[in-house]
Design goal:
Blueprint lengths: L2 E12 L3 E12 L3 E5 L6 H8 L7 E6 L2 E2 L4 H7 E4 L11 H11 L4 H14 L15 H13 L5 E5 L7 H18 L2 E6 L2 H7 L2 E6 L2 E6 L1 H6 L4 E7 L20 E2 L15 H11 L4 E7 L2 E6 L2 H14 L4 E7 L3 H9 L10
Parallel strand pairs: 3-8, 3-9, 6-7, 7-8, 12-13
Antiparallel strand pairs: 1-2, 1-4, 4-5, 9-10, 11-14, 11-15, 13-14
Length: about 350
């Protein structure tokens, strides 16, 4: 197996206090789309900066396209394309001028560069707008121009740092299609960073979930979701409980109620039940098949071998106790469930650095 990107035990600290990376390691197989998934502040952008030679790690090693990022930075730069979070488009230049300048910075020129620019404008559906100033482009068009600029020198490895942030749903869907086509038709290795779970699930052959500067889970999306047995159940209560005291075991083989750190007890601990919560504790203890129950405000999450069986029983028990329910859903395991399992909290609840 050939790896286009390898990183081992990367550490990076800013201002002597903020540890952006804390021993991050990953391997990206050549010719694949690899997603680095994590919330804002998890360390994704710092990883990209190290792999693209824009910053140096405090410790650890990394190779890109067979070149060491510390010992051979020029060789790495000749092999990669980079699309940063912030647009590199010159808004006062035309689309064609932006692409020509990007090629010239790599030493390209003449008819070969002109032909490559024409091909990229056509590929990204920008041919008709190539002579217009980029400031007249929509957000989606500007982002497509950004990606085209990252491809002008025909790199073997393309880094896309949160390429769809800020795009509307239609533009995001177009970008997803374009990224998939690049990998399939050009044989590129693409490292994609994102904080959109759906984006990683849809595009990546493999992914790594990053939390607080470390990889907490890695594999194919289906492998990671397959590690979670059964269905995910989510119930939104009409009112937040006065205190989180669902402290009894949900079933004979399930762990005790676990809660997030908003005043609720941790898994395995008990608390004095208020009237409504005490009833809920007793009734949920009688619902067979529920496990890993987590209450956060009005949101109650659990897992079950069969959601179709356990959810009606749980709802009936809550109704009998006088606890109103606003909504309830059953779904197959998601990447958010994977993140919750490995990081101890839901993806959207992660605290940024």
């Amino acid at each position: 197996m050939t790896y286009a990107i390898q990183a081992a035990d990367l550490v990076k600290t800013y201002s002597g206090e903020v540890r952006a990376l804390d021993g991050l390691s990953l391997d990206v197989q050549a010719g694949t789309i690899f997603a680095l998934l994590g919330p804002n502040g998890a360390g994704k952008s710092t990883t990209v900066k190290i792999l693209t030679t824009l910053t140096r790690p405090d410790a650890g090693t990394a190779q890109v396209a067979g070149a060491d990022v510390l010992r051979e930075p020029d060789r790495v730069r000749r092999s990669i394309g980079v699309v940063a979070q912030r647009s590199g488009v010159d808004l006062e230049a035309t689309g064609r001028e932006n692409l020509m300048l990007a090629g010239q910075l790599y030493g390209l020129g003449g008819r070969a560069l002109a032909a490559q620019v024409d091909a990229l404008l056509e590929r990204f559906d920008l041919a008709a707008a190539g002579g217009r100033l980029a400031r007249t482009y929509s957000g989606g068009m500007q982002r497509k121009l950004d990606v085209a600029m990252g491809l002008v020198q025909r790199p073997g490895v393309l880094f896309l740092d949160e390429p769809t942030t800020g795009l509307d749903p239609e533009a995001r869907a177009e970008m997803w299609q374009g990224i998939s086509q690049l990998a399939a038709e050009e044989g590129l290795t693409i490292l994609l960073t994102t904080h959109y779970l759906e984006e990683a699930d849809r595009l990546a052959q493999r992914l790594a979930i990053v939390d607080r500067g470390k990889v907490v889970a890695s594999g194919t999306p289906e492998e990671l979701k397959g590690q979670l047995r059964g269905d995910a159940i989510q119930i939104e209560l009409a009112d937040a409980p006065a205190s989180a005291t669902l402290s009894k075991a949900v079933s004979t083989d399930a762990p005790a109620f676990a809660a997030l750190p908003n005043g609720a007890p941790a898994a395995g601990h008990t608390g004095a039940a208020t009237s409504s919560n005490g009833r809920a504790s007793e009734l949920l203890a009688s619902v067979a098949g529920l496990r890993e129950v987590v209450l956060d405000g009005r949101s109650l999450r659990a897992r079950a071998d069969s959601g179709a069986v356990a959810l009606p029983a749980a709802l009936a028990a809550l109704e009998a106790a006088g606890i109103a329910v606003a909504s309830a859903t059953v779904a197959r395991p998601s990447l958010d469930d994977v993140y919750l399992r490995h990081a101890g909290r839901a993806f959207g609840e992660s605290d940024p650095k």
